[in-house]
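Reviewers of the previous submission asked for a worked example of the structure-prediction workflow described in the proposal, so we include one complete record here. The input consisted solely of the amino acid sequence. No template or homolog information was supplied to the procedure at any stage.
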Amino acid sequence: MTTKRKPYVRPMAPNWWQKLGFYRFYMLREGTSVPTVWFSILLICGLFALKNGPESWESFVSFLRNPIVVILNAITLAAALLHTKTWFELAPKAANIIIKDDKMGPEPVIKGLWAVTAVATVVILFIALFW
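From that input alone, the workflow returned the following structure tokens.
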């Protein structure tokens, strides 16, 4: 049996996500993957430079001191912090934490995740600076 009706196809403009703040923020958060790719490539290049000897490493370090690279790394850090903040806010909402038949809200979990992150950061910086 065939029908002569045409299916309705809703038109979708390429800028559909720009109409609501929620979608704009979503696109910004998802866009944090681009700086992450930059930083991943940078780390891989650093590993190869470290593997290839002191001259290669010195060249890599001088590349890292370039003001454009410093700006790109600052943008990458800001993107990583934004993504971390939104992930810490989202992850507890997806988990059902129940203690003694009471469902726990996400606030203690978020604070706990931030505390673990802060402690880990301090330990890593302490080891990197004073070891």
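The chain has five helices and two strands. We consider this example representative of the routine output the project will generate in years two and three.
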